[in-house]
Amino acid sequence: MLLDVKDLHVSYGAIRALRGISCQIREGEIVALIGANGAGKSTTLRTISGLIRPKSGEITYQGQSLIKMPPHQIVNLGISQVPEGRRVFTRMTVMENLEMGAYTRKDKAKVKEDIKKIFQRFPRLEERKNQLAGTLSGGEQQMLAMGRALMSKPKLLLLDEPSMGLAPMLVQEIFAIIKEINQAGTTILLVEQNAHMALSISNRAYVLETGEVVLSGDAQELANNPEVKKAYLGE
Amino acid sequence: MNMDSIFSMFLNDYYIQVLIMLGIYLIGALGLNLISGVTGQLSFGHAAFLSIGAYTSAILSLRLHLPFPMVLLAGGFMAALWGVLLGYPTLRLTGDYLGIATLGFGEIVRVVFLNLSITGGALGLSGIPRYTTLTLVIVLVVLTVWAMYRLENSRFGRALVAIREDEIAAEAMGVNITTSKITAFAIGTFLAGISGGLYAHLIQYLNPQDFGFQKSFDFLTFVVLGGLGSIPGVILGTTVLTLAPEFLRFVAEYRMMVYGALMVIMMIFRPRGLLGGVKLTRLLSRRKVQNTGTSAAGGAN
Amino acid sequence: MANNILELDSVTIRFGGLTAVDSVDMNIEEGSIRALIGPNGAGKSTIFNLVTCIYTPTSGEIRFMGQTINGLKPHIITKMGIARTFQNIRLFGEMTVLDNVKVGQHCRTRTGFLGAVLRGPRVKKEEAHITEAAMAALELMELSHKKDELAKNLPYGEQRRLEIARALATEPKLLLLDEPAAGMNPQEKQTLMKMIRKIQEMGLTIFLVEHDMKFVMSLSHRITVLDYGKKIAAGSPAEIQRDPAVIAAYLGKDVV
Amino acid sequence: MLTQQLLNGITLGATYALIALGYTMVYGIIQLINFAHGEIYMVGAFIGVLMVSVFHQGLLISLCAAMAFCMIMGVAIERVAYRPLRRSTRLAPLISAIGVSIFLQTLMTKIEGPQAVAFPHVINDSLYHMGAIEISKIQLIILVVSSLLMLGLHFIVKYVKIGKAMRAASEDYDTAALMGINVNRVISFTFAIGSALAAAGGVLVGMYFNSVAPLMGVLAGLKAFCAAVLGGIGSIPGAMLGGLFLGVAETLGVAGGFDLYKDAIAFTMLIVVLLFRPTGLLGRPIQRKV
Amino acid sequence: GGGGQKQNSADSNQAAGGGDTIKIGFLGAKTGEHAAFGVETLKGMKMAADDINKAGGVNGKKIEIVESDHGSKITEGTNVTQKLITRDKVVAIVGDPTTGITKAAAPIAQQNKVVLLSAGAVGTGVVEIGDYIFRDVLLDAVAAPAVTKYVNQKLGWKKVALITSMNNDYSVGLSKLFRKAVQENGMEIVAEQSIQDRDQNFSAQVTAIKDKNPDGIIFTGYYTEGGLFMKEARKQGMKAVMVGGDGLLSDVLMKMGGDAVEGSMVYCGFAADEARANEKTKKFIEAYKAGNNGTLPDMFSAQGYDAVMLLADAMKAAKSEDPQKFRVELAKTKDWQGVSGVITFQDNREPLKSPVYILTVKDGKFQVKDTVEVK
Ligand SMILES: Nc1ncnc2c1ncn2[C@@H]1O[C@H](COP(=O)(O)OP(=O)(O)OP(=O)(O)O)[C@@H](O)[C@H]1O
Ligand SMILES: Nc1ncnc2c1ncn2[C@@H]1O[C@H](COP(=O)(O)OP(=O)(O)OP(=O)(O)O)[C@@H](O)[C@H]1O
Ligand SMILES: [Mg+2]
Ligand SMILES: [Mg+2]
């Protein structure tokens, strides 16, 4: 078990966003988290990364508790996140943003190489590499956010709606990339509105509703589940 | 004035003095609240507008012996005029840069008053008649609160809040940012001018040193500590902070130390101000809000 | 043939060395739904910013109902009848949902400071009218039950709808929607589509940027495609879907 | 005479720049106008006096002691008065800062008395002549020390990783943390450096003008802050430029007969510069992208 | 306008007369800009009260000093004045040491018929506020012409530089007087420069006057700036010495100026010079030194002391603590020997203090250089 989330409760003031979520991620898996707006998907990811303190519950990563650990240490353990809404550093250039992604890494030469790889994946970013990230288009920012997270060479990558705002071709591209880095050894927890695509590349999935897990299991099975089809796949 | 004799039956002159001062500060603070709290334009130079109002009205009183209401209004309009003159070029500055420009303006006004002969320079202006009474101040405070309260729920008031929240979106909704901001500035500085005029005719002596940036910060503190944009908040903040130094007299020389520490502590425990987010309108129509505003988390269905 | 409500006449804008929009011509018919699609960074949002006068074009002319609007102030544009939503949501977070929409009525009403303070019968009537209009917009977007909540506390999808409601409250003739369906699940997208149709049926013209092809194809009457700031295609959804240039640049092979 | 005034102005400006750097760094990272910064400068000056007069130390040790003390103090102030307010409205820490500033002023008045204290002699008043210009040893020291400190700072921020971490943290704490940046540490570091520079400024100014007083931080702080804005707040070279600019302008203004309006000149210039360059001389223009 | 002059406080003052202590209020700053003056004034007042009480009090009652701090703020100054009068029911107020706050406080005292005796306000327009308002200071209007004449005739100064602190009402007023006196004595001001209180850097001003080669520098500001100014002057190689008012009179001048103020001259109505002092003054100096680690009193402490003594003597003469009565006696004060000099209140209640002491700094100490009689 790489990541084990047990009975997680999170509140924003009076709003109870998570009401006892449990989920497991095994090494090498792609796990999808789907659910309607406000179901608590982003909250789950933010809690794992240490940005939000849960009211109760336990998160263990490789047997080590993440509760109470500050976010930068969690990153050092190899957990990286592409946050919702891109959150690029708007006053830094594209290049600098990518370098920030590699903040914890010491291997400077390798970092340079990896930036090159990112540019190969997203040629658009290379064209814009000295532009301030704040003036990028929405989709370009999304690419940058993804590239930045990849720069940290995570063991576990948390993706919060990575396809949002991307052109159709790029959506395909993004999912291909997710599969590819997964095959290269990165475990992935994926939050997506595009449930169709998400389920198609995942091993397993959890369905969230108002802060609770209502369904879970094999991704393929869920994709064929009539309830899921109706509610999340729009069929 | 009959009301005043009634007041002095119940209150001694010291309390009356302190209450008048509180009222004067309230008017000024509500003015700043409109600028900084409601419209979100940082101003570090509020005291300068007080001083413009104070000097204008005092000079008119001393030289021309005009009736008090007239000089008060003149002080208010003079302050508003300068508010607009300063506002027009500087309001396109954003956030903190505007703050600095107003801070600079405040210091310039102070230095100018220090060097003009009509203001008595560093010697100050003395012998101003004492016209300010508790009754008058109470009436003006009530009027100001009333006006601000009505503004809160009006087309113009909403436009100001929209500017504070997101200028680009406000503009896209058809709000003319520049005129709205300037109008807010004019009204806020007008109130500062009135407040200054009352002050001049209470203290009976004016000195530019009394209107330095520290006084501007005092006003900002009233507003922020009370709760930016909240009328009850500003009233509470101003009251607490005006009375605190008086109540803290028993700690003698440690008074200002305690005052400073209290500012920090209050901010830490109430980061949005004592009554941050509390709106008078909402307070008054509380029941309605409670009925409808409950289901927050159950949004997904 | 109906009138063109919006006309772009070889509109160009450059940021430094970058030509974000490159001599684009476009005519939008009154009452239609027009989509603007293209790869990321093609210049779609920039066109919206040009039409709402947040940017001034480097060259070219933009006409709204036959009148040149280059270089006007955004608030004037709104008053003329163009409203928009933002790709990155820009709500007035600390205001209630209802107040957000009421701000939309700003350009259709008059009360200033003095009016607000004195609150005569005319002002009261106007305020009542504002509330009515705002509630109508909220109802259309199915948000009236949330009217007293702070905008920042709404879930993402509802925030998007609130943006549309707020834009509708300005009583526009032309409504620009920048990725209105982003971050919504398929079901919500369906609802949104119905809403947009309803709006169009009310007589508004809709100009739409969106990456969800299902959404675009089933909603729009005509589609314009942009790549690297240049118009590469225009036509009906069926035509666009078949256009090899569009497939190469944007759609990819197995979409839709 | 003009060159002499220029030199006086540059010396003054160098000290403004030292203080301005702290303002700019803190502003750059937490967008807080740290109004308590002037008081840190004041405390630094007093520590300098204490080291020299009570512990009989030389300039270098006194300077280092003051810098070390204020470093700790700056970090502590951030911990107590600003950190709890990090996620609240922008103005909350500002008020907290004013509170801290009032507190430190009165505390120091209580300890040292309200009067100015003379700065004991550590450096003789010898003059060096360079053509028509006279430069005193103290001026020389000020120029050298402040240049060294600023160069050091520039190096740290430009070439060491923490500089970039500061910029990232300044935009978005959460996302910076997601990059593995220890945001608290970066902010503490910023306060430490800024406060140390202010302390150095305090000691140097105390020595130069031979006096140290509990209220000395108010005006100096304000002017340094203006210098920071003038240069473009958040920009380190901007703070240096702004400081020098202000120092020279002020000195020349006084020499040119505008002494009555000295402070007004400084602020008028500030407003004029802001009108033409709304983000200061070296500030990056704000990009509007929707 | 005669409005607002309510007299409801008369009864409260009668009540004050009934207790077994006589309350005298201290109006001044213990914190903020002017704290130094306030603190010293208060020290003197307390010493006077002690001395009086040890000697049996006034009319069988003890003197009690009621203290309050206004933090050097005008607004709070008026609040404190009002509080002293209405809450503490003082019969007299000593203060404020500065002209500005005195001008704001005096109308309140006047309206409430409480005596206000400033032990430091030297600016114009103070006693004119009303017949309850007094001060026990050496007036610059008296001293400045006397001193100007002195430097001209005895020291042969012809060309002077005049330095004013522009944000200091005292300095601005004094400079006016000096400007007039210089003209009347046929001298010339060759350079005029302004500074500001709490400035530390005077290099520009010194550079500007240096070339004009004045015989002497008239400096009308306070001691901190005075010391620093001279320091800069010497640093830039100027030889001229400085003369100024009692605003320069403090040990701080030497602390700030060191050797640079050697030879500087200061006039005042009080000299803490034990060698020349009379018995009364000597006793005061000793007592002050004993209570303050050997530092010498400055004029504020001396004037504060005298203020309380003056009030006490007036009350004794009137056999009453009712301000309406003892202020009449106070106004009659003639050739009254205090620790800060001989005081006579003229018909307009302005004090005449004689002689004017001219002190000079020698070996880091103030020494009386000469005295000038004034009429
Ligand atoms: N900062 C916040 N303050 C208050 N409530 C919040 C905050 N962030 C989220 N919430 C609320 O918590 C609940 C869960 O939100 P969360 O963002 O985790 O949902 P989500 O599943 O990611 O939705 P979406 O698909 O819209 O991204 C929602 O009701 C939301 O309104
Ligand atoms: N202010 C600006 N300065 C520099 N470049 C800019 C600016 N605004 C936009 N750009 C660039 O112009 C191009 C077009 O941007 P625009 O936001 O219009 O794209 P878009 O078509 O909306 O893309 P998306 O679908 O990703 O939102 C992008 O490459 C962007 O980087
Ligand atoms: Mg989410
Ligand atoms: Mg876009």
TrEMBL record, chain A:
UniProt KW S-adenosyl-L-methionine keyword: no
EC number(s) reported in the record: 3.6.3.30
InterPro entries for the chain: AAA+_ATPase, ABC_branched_ATPase_LivF/BraG, ABC_transporter-like_ATP-bd, ABC_transporter-like_CS, BCAA_Transport_ATP-bd_LivF, P-loop_NTPase
Keywords of this entry: Amino-acid transport, ATP-binding, Hydrolase, Nucleotide-binding, Transport
Chain ranges of the ABC transporter domain: 3-235
Enzyme class: hydrolase
UniProt xrefs under Pfam families: ABC_tran
CDD domains in the cross-refs: ABC_TM1139_LivF_branched
Gene Ontology biological-process entries: L-amino acid transport
Family matches, as Gene3D superfamilies: P-loop containing nucleotide triphosphate hydrolases
Record GO terms (molecular function): ATP binding; ATP hydrolysis activity; branched-chain amino acid transmembrane transporter activity
Entry similarity comment: Belongs to the ABC transporter superfamily.
Protein name in the entry: Fe(3+)-transporting ATPase
Organism expressing this protein natively: Desulfotomaculum nigrificans (strain DSM 14880 / VKM B-2319 / CO-1-SRB)
UniProtKB/TrEMBL annotation, chain B:
Membrane-spanning parts: 14-35, 42-62, 68-88, 100-125, 131-149, 182-202, 222-244, 256-275
Main location: membrane
Pfam families: BPD_transp_2 (PF02653)
Annotated membrane topology: Multi-pass membrane protein
Stored CDD domains: TM_PBP1_LivM_like
GO (cellular component) term, any one: plasma membrane
InterPro entries found in the cross-reference section: ABC_transp_permease (IPR001851), LivM-like (IPR043428)
GO MF annotation terms: branched-chain amino acid transmembrane transporter activity
Compartments it resides in: Cell membrane
Keywords, in A-Z order: Cell membrane, Membrane, Transmembrane, Transmembrane helix
The protein, known as: ABC-type transporter, integral membrane subunit
Annotated organism of origin: Desulfotomaculum nigrificans (strain DSM 14880 / VKM B-2319 / CO-1-SRB) (Desulfotomaculum carboxydivorans)
UniProtKB/TrEMBL annotation, chain C:
A GO MF label: L-isoleucine transmembrane transporter activity
Segments forming domain ABC transporter: 6-253
Annotated GO biological process: D-alanine transmembrane transport; L-alanine transport; L-isoleucine import across plasma membrane; L-valine import across plasma membrane
CDD domains: ABC_Mj1267_LivG_branched
One GO location term (cellular component): plasma membrane
Enzyme Commission number(s) from the entry: 3.6.3.25
Transmembrane regions: none
Alphabetical keyword list: ATP-binding, Hydrolase, Nucleotide-binding, Transport
Entry-linked SMART domains: AAA
A Pfam family assignment: BCA_ABC_TP_C
Name of the featured protein: Sulfate-transporting ATPase
TrEMBL record, chain D:
Transmembrane segments: 6-25, 58-77, 89-108, 138-157, 186-209, 215-233, 240-258, 264-283
Pfam families: BPD_transp_2 (PF02653)
Taxonomic source organism: Desulfotomaculum nigrificans (strain DSM 14880 / VKM B-2319 / CO-1-SRB)
Gene Ontology CC: one annotated term: plasma membrane
Keywords per UniProt: Amino-acid transport, Cell inner membrane, Cell membrane, Membrane, Transmembrane, Transmembrane helix, Transport
UniProt-annotated location(s): Cell membrane
Membrane topology of the entry: Multi-pass membrane protein
Keyword Zinc-finger attributed: no
Protein name: ABC-type transporter, integral membrane subunit
PANTHER family membership: BRANCHED-CHAIN AMINO ACID TRANSPORT SYSTEM PERMEASE PROTEIN LIVH, HIGH-AFFINITY BRANCHED-CHAIN AMINO ACID TRANSPORT SYSTEM PERMEASE PROTEIN LIVH
